[in-house]
Description:
The chain is α+β, with helices and mostly antiparallel strands and about 50 residues long. The chain has one domain (about 5-50). The protein has helices at about 5-10, 15-25, 40-50, and strands at about 30-35, 35-40. The chain has a two-stranded antiparallel sheet. Helix 1 (about 5-10) crosses helix 2 (about 15-25). The longest helix is centred in the middle third of the chain and has 11 residues, at about 15-25. The model has no long low-confidence stretch (mean pLDDT about 95).
Amino acid sequence: MNGLSANDIATIWKMPAKTVYWLAHKHGWRRYRDSGKTFYHPDDVLDALG
C-alpha cells in the first residue's frame, strides 16, 4: 500500500506538520507503520483536504 507521510502532506498542502497530526486525529485517518515511519491512507487525506 502506498501512503503519505506527515511530511509529504505538509509539503503538498503547505501546512505545518503539527497541523497534519491534528487533522489525522480529528478525521480519524487510517494509518500504518513501515520501517518506523507512519503513513496515512491517501483516500482519507484527500477526503479531508482534497
